[in-house]
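**Discrete fold encoding**
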Amino acid sequence: MIRINLLPFRLARKRENIRRQVSVFVLSILLAAVGLTCYTLGMDKRIAALQHQIARIDSEIAGYNQKAEQVAHIQNRVKRLENKLEIVASLELRRDAQLLLLEDLQTRIVPGQMWIESIIAEETAVTMTGIAFDNATIADFMRRLEASDLFQEVDLNQTVSKRFDGNLNLKAFELRCRKQPLISETR
């Protein structure tokens, strides 16, 4: 009987199987490493692209914030300008009201018998000081003021006799009256 020793062949076959398994294992590890490296590089590339996009958006936001600050500054300037225009308009209304007050007062003075020395016009009241020849002239002036649409509640605060040029005896007076608001003042 012939005996065949197959041990070296089996051993060689086993070694070949082990070598093949080790090669497959090493190759699969290499493939996994290459795959993970590619994946990591791709992710790094995406992260870099997203960071670049974030930086670009941040710069755009900074530009828009700067423009928003400029708009807010312009709005503040416009508001201040509008306030100034309102003040100017109210001053013009008051100027017109004072002009009407003086024009009406001029028509109420008793000509040639009295003089107005000072007028203090407040928002709701007018105080006048002046000189007249006698008390009847002051009373006539007060009646004329009460007949006006601009003056109400005319009160005589005081009258004082004053001597001028040695022998001329005149009456200094002070009147206070409530001022009627004009239509243009109430706007």
Summary: The longest strand covers residues 151-164. The first helix runs from residue 7 to 108. The CA atoms of residues 101 and 150 lie 7 Å apart. The mean pLDDT is 86.
